[in-house]
Amino acid sequence: MKRLAVSGATGFVGGHLSRWLPSQQCVAQPLSRAMIGSADLPVALRGMDAVIHLAARAHRLRDAATDPAREFHEVNVGITRVMAQACVSAGVKRFVFVSSAGVLGSRSPTDGFTDASSAAPHDDYTRSKLAAEQMLTTEFGGRLEVVILRPPMVYGPGAPGNFDRILKAVLTGFPLPLGGLRAPRSLISVRNLCDVMLRAATCSSVEARPMLVSDREVTSVAELAAAIAEAVGRRNRGFIVPPSMLSAALKLAGRSGDLHRLLEPFVLRGSLACSSLGWSPEFEFAHELEWTVRATGRGI
Q: 3, 93, 199, 232: most buried, per Cβ within 10 A?
């Protein structure tokens, strides 16, 4: 039975992972914030087969920090370094780091990003994630088996951010100006992400290069809203608003940062996770979305 330590176990993805691992004949050892910052961390990691590092300062639409760039770096790079060093001290061989596909840019080319696409981080969050990737590779590449996963937006019950706003808005039944948002976008179900994290932590050999991971299907904001409505048996009441008008409305609402996540394509065409880890998405988008919608609908 594999023993896996999970940082960020109280977050959205970490919570799902910690509950899911026992069903896969694994022992999940959650690491608290207090433990990560203590001298006892290497002791807590002894006997672990791998660490899955999810603890991070996430992207925020309205960031009240005085110096967001510094805080992103201190958490997403600094704490990652602490975790990796503790793994070395404890004799843990493998370190799975969950980064972000956003390190490649805010908009994908027409044919999508590949594992070989050049990095082009576009905000403080993605710059800090890329810096953490580079730190792990340069400082720990010879001492740890570092596996870097780059997922897109993650959805599932309890998902935060834009997905949660779209989901709950559709469930209210109010008409939404989403009908024109047809740019193709890759997503990943939290269960597919849990599956690939487990594979990355336990497979016999790993690829050193960062790997894109996503659902097999590609969707759009308009299609996502329509699928949510269909899952609960409601009429899709989305309507089309010209992008220029939507842009102006988002700016007035102080949310212009949402624009590229709504209007621009973001498609992933990764292959390394399949060739290196032997992984392919097990859970289909339609099933996962229905599961998410019904779980969320019970809570609102």
A: 199
Q: Tens digit of pLDDT for each residue in 175-203?
A: 666 666 778 999 999 999 999 999 999 99
Does a structural domain hold residue 120? yes
**Given strand 145-150, what is the order of strands in its sheet?**
26-31, 2-7, 50-53, 94-98, 145-150, 211-212
Q: Which residue type, as a one-letter code, is found at position 26? A: C
Q: List the domain range (segments joined by +) for residue 130.
A: 2-158+189-215+267-282
Answer for the pair 130, 287: CB distance below 8 angstroms, yes or no: no
pLDDT value, residue 134: 97
35 inside domain: yes
Instruction: Report yes or no on 127 lying in a domain.
Output: yes
Number of structural domains in the chain: 1
Cβ–Cβ under 8 Å, residues 98 and 149: yes
Phi-psi region at 138: left, alpha or beta (left = phi > 0; alpha = psi -120 to 50) = alpha
36-79 pLDDT per residue, tens: 888 899 999 999 999 999 999 886 555 556 788 999 999 999 99
